[in-house]
Structures are given as structure tokens and as C-alpha cells.
Write a structure and sequence with these properties.
- With 226 residues, this protein is an alpha+beta fold.
- It has a single domain, classed as Cytidine Deaminase, domain 2 (3-Layer(aba) Sandwich).
- Helix content is 24%, strand content 30%.
- It has six helices and 13 strands.
């Protein structure tokens, strides 16, 4: 399906910030002990994703990302990567040679091996406000089945995104997983806690008299009346 088009004139869609929604999670294939996972987006991944969508024009663009499994069935998408790709308003196809070059360059430094092994997320943009997967989207996920799990994200310009969790190890597919921003910056957390200890103290509030900054100003000072 192509972008909204009236009489051959493409309509530019307004890009809005991604916003979590009330998830309608479903387990399509039941398995023993299945728990619905929560998808977390680092602020960096969230920002980069928004800028990708904002810069994509009318095209359907795709990207890959790293995933870290946290406690309590939470999965953190920390970084996203763009690759060369052929796109239109209704499809995107990665340049496999470019992806191969990316892996080759990353492997030159052993420190990058954990990054490469954690690329377990595929996100892409859909036209309009449609987050339903296409037949091609479903076929694409078969290519990732050698992994224990993989996450697919479908995004729209009006700010909607739906994550589907493929648990290949147990043969389980969970659609529309709940997601949220992962705001855990330990350095900033400690800095703010330090400011709280330094600047905030317990005190008694006098209910009979409002604080000076809450007092109603003298109208004569505002109007200039004598």
C-alpha cells in the first residue's frame, strides 16, 4: 500500500513523537510458562528512531537494533543502526553487502562482538497509521529464526508503534507487547539525589499565610492606579 495520494499528489504526513499506548498483547502460540515481555527503549534509541521517521520522507525505511535482556522479562533496545537500502512508499529492502561490511568492520575490534551478537531487533516504518504486518513482514521474520528470540517493531508517522516478540526457542509469538522509555542514567540519578540532599529540607508550612511567591500582587502595582 502506498502513501496517501490524492489525484497523484503526495500528501506530507506530520511526524509526531512516539507515544506508548494501552497494549492489546496477544499470545498467538501458547507455550508453557509464557510471560508477556515489556520492551524498553533507551532515550538514545527513542530519539534516533524519531529522527529516522522524521527524515524518511514518504518512504518506508528500516533499521536494526541491539537488544539486552534485563530482569523480569524486560528487553532493552539500546542502539539502532541504519544501512543502505532500496525503498519506496510501501517497501524497504536492506543491502546485504552493506550489512556484511558493517559486521566486518565491527569485528576488527573484539570489544564490538557483544554488540553484533545482540542485534536482535528489526524496526521499519509503515505508511499512514497502519501497524498491521504485511505478508512480507511475516516472511522476513523467518530469516531471524536461528536466534533464540527477535523483536519486530512497526512504526508510523502519527506516533504509533507496535512491537512483536518472536520467541523462537519456545515457538511463541507475542504481538503488541507493552513498551516504555528506559530512563536509567545512574550518573544523573546520583547527581539529582545529591542536589535533593543539598537543597531540599523538611520544614513547617504555615497554612494561615501563603508563601511570598504565592501572595496575590497589589493590583495598584500592576495597573499603576493611585
Amino acid at each position: 500500500m502506498n502513501m496517501p495520494d490524492l489525484f497523484g499528489i503526495a500528501i506530507k504526513e506530520q511526524v509526531r513523537p512516539l507515544a506508548p499506548h494501552e497494549a492489546n498483547s496477544q499470545i498467538e502460540v501458547l507455550g508453557a510458562g509464557v510471560i508477556i515481555p515489556t520492551i524498553l527503549l533507551s532515550f538514545r534509541a527513542y530519539s534516533d528512531t524519531h529522527y529516522i521517521i522524521e527524515s524518511a520522507g514518504h518512504n518506508e525505511v528500516g533499521w536494526l537494533g541491539t537488544v539486552q535482556k534485563l530482569e523480569e522479562d524486560r528487553y532493552l533496545i539500546d542502539r539502532v543502526f541504519l544501512f543502505n537500502q532500496d525503498v519506496s512508499g510501501a517497501h524497504c529492502e536492506f543491502d546485504q553487502e552493506d550489512i556484511g561490511k558493517f559486521y566486518h568492520e565491527m569485528l576488527k575490534d573484539p570489544v564490538n562482538k557483544p554488540i553484533l551478537s545482540s542485534i536482535l531487533f528489526w524496526g521499519h516504518l509503515h505508511p499512514g497509521n497502519m501497524t498491521e504486518p504485511s505478508g512480507q513482514d511475516e516472511e522476513q521474520m523467518e530469516l531471524f529464526a536461528h536466534n533464540p528470540f527477535f523483536i519486530r517493531g512497526i512504526f508510523t508517522r502519527p506516533g504509533k508503534c507496535v512491537f512483536t516478540f518472536f520467541d523462537y526457542a519456545r515457538g511463541v509469538k507475542i504481538t503488541d507487547c507493552p513498551w516504555q522509555l528506559h530512563l536509567e542514567d545512574e550518573e544523573r540519578k546520583k547527581a539529582i539525589a545529591g542536589e535533593i540532599r543539598e537543597k531540599v529540607r523538611a520544614g513547617r508550612f504555615n497554612k494561615k499565610e501563603a508563601p511570598s511567591w504565592q501572595k496575590r500582587p497589589n493590583p495598584k502595582l500592576i495597573t499603576g492606579d493611585n
